[in-house]
């Protein structure tokens, strides 16, 4: 049975797209020629990009984030549609006729440099200060610097996404922006499992010019990212504020199990300091991934979590609302496992210590089939049901447990939903 379990605790890997690196470099080098074509393609590939930008509701001062659909084509697949095939052929023929030289390379990097300079208006420099005493009982200040990203703003508030290290043991958190506007920030929310926090800066005393100089980053759709796509790092990829890096997406793992959810992990060739505030954007300047110290690679590549899988969590955090928390890492059960009589549901790969799941007795290897009267057939269904639950609610979870003889017994677990 152990071997059977191993079969479905696997990652879904994006298959190799041969020759993609060369095509992408060519497209970037000939940006001036391909500009018109790219604009036309965008009409088909990314309709309504404005929906990925965080919007504010004037009625309740509640900020909402438009979510992305998971069953979408990758950007490479979209380019293969009938509507854009003719445009692609025209572009490639023009590119093939061009002789590239040193000036083309300089032009390409100039475009990328200009983009990162524009994105500086979305970056916040964070100085976390801790008050301590020396051997002689004298009060001294020690501090560390981090980068954050403006993820939303209202008329009187700027909300900043940052690594959780920026708030750890901090007595004072000072924030400054590229336009030299500086203020003390407060912690609005934090998620220790993901390793991120949201800071709030009161801008009610700032004039309109100052406010306009602070921009919220547009949120991209990481489900459209493909292996080989060009990416830019902003924030503190080198450990210093307002540093940057260029590279590409080297590898993609989908449906990686994280606490109470799954996420897409992207591995990039860019070296990222995952504890100082490093963020990945695409060549349109949209945020596509976040690097955190909670998820680190054993290789030379850096890991970022796709932004699309974090949008629901971020919406809770920027509104300082607790999300329902059970405390497991779920994974889908594939067809091979079902043929080996593994029941339908989600398989528990890990139980977080002191979580509601841990306290109620859920164990690694359990298969959750029902939560609060709703059937659980996949991790997607698990996330949907969890999103409906309210903190403090008493629920019943139905699950199957292997008795060690390839036989499953059904159990009912009583649990009180916690918040995170």
Oligomer: single chain
Largest pleated sheet: 7 strands, antiparallel
Beta fraction: 25-35%
* Rg calc: 23 Å
Mean pLDDT comes to 84
How many helices? The count is: 11
Molecular shape:
globular
The strands making up the biggest β-sheet line up spatially as: 8-7-4-5-6-10-9
Q: Poorly predicted ranges (pLDDT <50, ≥5 residues)?
A: 1-60, 73-82
Helix content: 10-25%
Number of strands: 25
N-to-C span: 35 Å
Structural class per helix/strand content? alpha+beta
Explain this structure to me?
It is a single chain. This protein is α+β, with helices and mostly antiparallel strands. The strands form 5 sheets. Strands 8-7-4-5-6-10-9 form a 7-stranded antiparallel sheet, with no helix packed on it. Helix 3 packs antiparallel against helix 5. The longest helix is centred in the N-terminal third of the chain and has 18 residues. The two termini are 35 Å apart.
